[in-house]
Amino acid sequence: MVALLFAATTINYIDRNVIGFMLLSDDFRRAMLQLPADQVLTAAHLATFKEQMGLVDAAFKLAYGLGFVFVGWLIDRLGTRVGFAISIFFWSVAGMAVALVQSFGGLRVARFLLGLGEAGNFPSAIKSVAEWFPQKERALANGLFNSGANVGIILTAVAVPWLTLEYGWQSAFVVTGALGLGLLGLWWRVYYPPGQHPKLSAGERAYIAQGQAEEPPVRVSWWRLLGYRQTWAFVTGKVLSDPVWWFYLSWLPDFFNSNDALGQKLDLKTVGLPFIVIYLVSDLGNVVFGWLSSRLIGRGWPVNRARKLTLLACALCVLPVLFAATTHNLYVAVALVAVATAAHQGFS
Hints:
The chain is mostly helical. The chain has helices at 2-22, 26-33, 43-78, 80-97, 104-118, 121-132, 138-146, 148-167, 169-190, 202-210, 222-226, 229-258, 272-298, 303-318, 330-347. The mean pLDDT is 89.
């Protein structure tokens, strides 16, 4: 089950991150600006492109945020198996549709629809972990499947520049979107809740049930939920930390391509290796911090104390990224960003 959720999260991140590497493609820039293929791109063209891509990025994030409002309810109502299947289908088709657009307007619509579909990944995955794992193992399970986000970015950094250079920018969206349709078939064949899974033994089912909460689930209204301090603590943490992660995902290729402080710039041919380093380290942080939390709980620490200490360690590891924007050394900048992304994923 962790492997299946890992694969889903990997493909989810591949589909959403293709667009970041298109910031380095002159053919994509010209297509969206509706310029001739032989047009020389001026500074004014690039400024307009970045401004419009900011609006495209905002459209995706708006839909992704709005999607969370109802997608959790939908998954609870339909069940994880059906709800996540709908989400996978929706985001895969929307991702492939980007290959058909000819303007920023069409790109905004396609990315908006992608955001709606992709909002289903993490609610589905987290609910699946809650269904399949005892409480003491959930942090590690979440860390393992969440590491698929970084693997997705690594695979995107390896495959998308090559696809773009060899077969054109449209191919990157078609190929990566098609991966989701393959995932959909695998998900439908493999995933069932523990109570319905045909290959789950009685001993495994008892082990899972033993570590679940004993209280029956209670329906909680939005107004009641907003009355909890815990809700606002969680929301505040997400408000303060998530925009940073999204900044990395959306604009990091452009940061390494256009940052005047750096003595060496990256393009489609050279961007792959630094991103592999950054997100391999990020993956390591994801698993290590997930392990740390579970390890402390396993040694008898209260869940609250163990997880908050892990959060503090993550937060401290993020601080040195302040210097990434001012260093002239590309390798130092890559190292600083790598540590920050690792800590952020552990925090998540």
